[in-house]
Amino acid sequence: MAKKKINQDFAFFNALYHFVQTNKGRVRQKYRKLSKHLLDFNDPDLRTDAYLRRPQFEALEMYVFLKEFGENRHVHQLFKEWAKGEGIFDGLVKADGSKQGQGMLLGFEEIIGEDQYDALFAKMSERARSYPNYIFALTMGLGKTILMATTIFYEFLLANKFGKDTKYCRNALVFAPDKTVLQSLKEIQTFDLSLVVPPEYANFLRTNLKFHFLDDTASTIGAQDGSSFNIIISNTQKIILKRKTAKPTATDKLFAEKKGTLSEVYGDLYEMLGEDAPETDADLAVNARFQRIARLPQLGIYVDEAHHSMGASLEKDLGQARQPSALRTTIDELARALEARKSSVVGCYNFTGTPYVKDRIMPEVVYAYGLKPAIDNKYLKQPDFFSYTGSIKSDDFVREVITDFWTELGETRHEGMLPKLALFASTIEELEKDLQPAIEKVLADLGVSSDKILRNVGDSRLTTNEDIREFNRLDTEGSNKQFILLVGKGGEGWNCRSLFGVALYRKPKSRIFVLQSTMRCLRAIGPHQETGRIYLSAENQAILDDELQQNFRVTTDELGPKKDDTSVTVEITAVPPPVVIKMKRHRELYSTVKKDEPDALEIDLSEDAMEQFRIKVERRTHLKDKPTSVEDITDRQSHKAYSRLTLVGELARYFSGDAISAFDIEDALESTKDGLDAVLTAVNTANDVIYDILVPHLFHAFFEVEKFQKSVEEEVELIRGYNDASNRLPEFTFKAQEHLVQRRDYPKFDGTRSKSFHLDAYCFDSAPEVEFFERVIKDERTDKIYFTGMLVHGQSGFQVYYIHPESHTVCNYHPDFLVYRDDGKAHLIEVKSNWKKDDPVVLAKKEAAELLAVGNQFEYALVTKEQFDGFLAPDGWDQYQPDAMLDT
Question: What pLDDT sits at residue 258?
Fold first, then answer.
């Protein structure tokens, strides 16, 4: 029977992403509170100073969805339940996964059909592993390492809080493809985790994280057996369990170390390996690392830069090939070893640059953000391709490239750094005899010093330690090197944001090298999108087009600016004098006072009260049926056994020794209705009794909480950054659609510009905002109108703090307009689409803004376009006399 052909345009990861967005409210109901809190802390829509870029945050959203809602299901299991509308997808809306129809609400029959479902499900499940295997495909330069670090931090926080839940990773093993990437992964250790972790949890991670960096074969792992929160960073060769594949020759036997010697030195570890026992100390050291990792519980495996080996080898590494690679074999072996110890590989999380292999979508991709959208949305430089056709000679190619680069960029600094041009040679001999002399001659003709040249060729005779130091400091203001000569340095792990150009004349041995090397110059730098210049021979241009099609389904022509993109770069300057508003901020303060005599401790340990802590397993034949049996398995759960002494000691940790002593706590527990022994029994039944019952009750028994309300008047700047000393006005750069830009010097504002424009141009988000602004500024009753919804990244002090309705996180909100009427009345106005006005987050913002407005005698209004006429009518504005007046 012929195999069914798979529709290569269907991407399940698109359908999965749009399902999450379509059903976000109901999906988040399944999340733990800590998961919601961490997501909202990193959401760029909720926090203007959120560190993660939007693609990173969207990938984090999918990671949490797979963990909390999907409960670590395999991708083929998710696909089956999604297609059939069963399991976790029962009763929820699905979405189309095609490029053309993303977001359409359809059944799977309309999207792919039964035949396609069968073929896709077979493809997804035929080579599934024993552990979940997910692929996150974010193109180069979007910050996969930071994303990986964030997901590991998330796992550890949840594993610590919910220690009995085995779906969270307690340890992490990070694989790098080679030594270059291994070095770049040190960022996980040096990264300031407080940028992505809420402050109340950051100290726990700083205290408990343990890093093990295996950068050479002599490195050992110091992790204790059974310990948690270890992050081991390595590559496959440093831990793979080596196996003998051929019988030793007579020579091998002669020079091999005697088994008796190794057995005596390493004892039980050596014997445990059985037939796989190594012949040498070096082999045994590698295997010992493997065994040490296999004794760490709930292991998460993270494969960084999997696209380092694009093409067929990538397919092997990600477990999609019939013959798995050494990397995949190592992970499979670890999974078996952990299972034998009653533990598991919780999941394997692969971070790659493309969802495609040979123009085919890999079935286990769960999130993708491609090269073209990354360029279109300004996360990367805009590429500019220079293809030299005909029979141009290499010396002429070098002269054209360097002359163009120097003429266009020269020594213009970006973020204080000089622009760099990387020129690749196929061999060291070619670099020495041809490329470098040609470059030196061109630089001499241009009057540029040859000191700006730096070589890195991978040969210690030609590349000194000083050269390596210079290479590692290229992205610093102190580097004066601009022309970087390279041999074989085009792969991953070399991150140089100040690289503005790449030149590749001769055809390299590897076709994928053309793609890897040319993309190096696209990493973003500066406040707005720059251009990366890519110089190629005609032959390399053809190779690049083919590799882009194979790996990203785009061509060099398609990577250019969008033909329908009418957005422009707008340079904006503040208009003096600075606008300052006097406002009242309301603050609630709390203080704790120890009671003279503690209250009697009343703790309910009845069966009904303890029911919330019991773990039960329900058995049913079908998901929708009532359980046929219910078994209480609380006693079988792993938990810490406390004694009277250790329980009192644990509780004392939560209170200052000067305020409440361990003796006070013991007396309080003894005086309860059931006594300390009954409390101890409850704790040993469920440890969560300590945190959910005992600690809160003890606190309220010993302390009184007093609440104070305070109103503070403060001066708020509509624009921060005025410098009285230098008289320099604040400046900003924005990208906006031209028709949404309203400039102060437009003739239509000749009679009204004094009513507004604290900036010399406003970049609006929508046509209704423009219409509202134009109508209000022309209104004779308007004294002042300021567009305050523009500076939302800390450039303005005018903002409203609100509590997010789900995670209870404090977030920032900037209303669209601040309007003052000629009769002294003041208004905060938000212009919203009609379908968004009842959104829970919009309503939370509205509630917070109304509270601020009443305290300052402003009036807050949320207005849709359909309400403009009624709202702007003579009696449409609510009547409030403002306390807060402009002070200009």
Answer: 43
293, 260, 300: which is closest to 279 by C-alpha? 260
Which residue among 518, 535, 565 closes a domain? 565
E strand or H helix that includes residue 356: strand 356-357
Helix (H, G, I), strand (E, B) or coil at 252: helix
- Provide the CA 637 distance to its chain's centre, in angstroms: 34
Do residues 114 and 222 share a domain?
yes
> In this structure, is residue 256 part of a structural domain?
no
What DSSP element (H or E) covers 145? helix 144-161
pTM of the model: 0.66
Domain identity same for 866 and 878: yes
Instruction: Work out how many domains the chain is built from and give that number.
Output: 4
Residues 472/456, Cβ–Cβ less than 8 Å: no
Q: Which domain holds residue 424?
A: 373-565
Residue 285 lies in a domain: yes
Q: How far is CA 202 from the centre of its chain?
A: 17
pLDDT tens per residue across span 441-481: 999 999 999 999 998 887 777 788 888 888 888 999 999 99
Give me the pLDDT at residue 62, please: 96
End-to-end CA distance of the chain: 82
Answer yes or no: is 252 within a domain: no
Question: What are the φ/ψ torsions at residue 502 (nearest 5 degrees)?
Answer: -135, 135
Q: How many CB atoms lie within 10 A of CB 699?
A: 14
Q: List Cβ neighbours of 147 (8 Å cut-off, separation of 6 or more).
A: 52, 56, 59, 60, 136, 138, 351
In this structure, the answer to whether residues 543 and 620 fall within a common structural domain is no
Quick: pLDDT tens for 581-634. 887 776 667 778 888 888 888 888 888 888 888 777 665 554 445 666 677 766
CA–chain centroid gap for 238, Å, is 28
Residues 334 and 410 occupy one common structural domain: no
